[in-house]
């Protein structure tokens, strides 16, 4: 494998370790191990440093306009090609948990893509997006602006499941 491929692989691995350790930290908190939870969060942060360094070495960190274009292409690939295929296979295998997870992601990637398109349009007219309150559904990942809906439009959960992004 070339170093470029190694960097891509290492980026994927470090990114996954970051999200895993954060999930492990939540479990450790719940099980009553705040000290271990803190260690897991610290290691997760270290993995993020590695992931970002690999990305930088790959030359994949560009201007915000270019980054948004890449993000839009990624989200569109996910909801137009990747998840539809995954949904079909999960349906064929009768994997209800995977179906639920893929359905939530498919719906929310469309929201992400349209918000990023809005952001890119703002840049193209030489503006930033207006700074506003943004909330994320902790069940399906849906993103909403300004205020929390009475029920999540994607997964139907109550407003308490939305957390504000700082
Ligand atoms: Fe997304
Ligand atoms: Fe939701």
Description:
The protein has four helices and three strands; from the N terminus they run ααααβββ. A hairpin with a 5-residue loop joins strand 1 and strand 2. Helices cover 67% and strands 6% of the residues. Strands 2-1-3 form a three-stranded antiparallel β-sheet. It has helices spanning 3-30, 34-58, 64-93, 96-124; strands spanning 134-137, 143-145, 162-164. The mean pLDDT is 96. With 166 residues, the chain is mostly helical. It has three domains: 3-58, Ferritin; 63-130, Ferritin (Up-down Bundle), CATH 1.20.1260; 132-166, Single Sheet (Rubrerythrin, domain 2), CATH 2.20.28. The structure holds fe (ii) ion (2 copies). One fe (ii) ion binds at residues 75, 109, 112.
Outline:
The protein is mainly α. Helix content is 67%, strand content 6%. The protein has three domains: 3-58, Ferritin, core subunit, four-helix bundle (Ferritin, Up-down Bundle), CATH 1.20.1260; 63-130, Ferritin, core subunit, four-helix bundle (Ferritin, Up-down Bundle), CATH 1.20.1260; 132-166, Rubrerythrin, domain 2 (Single Sheet).
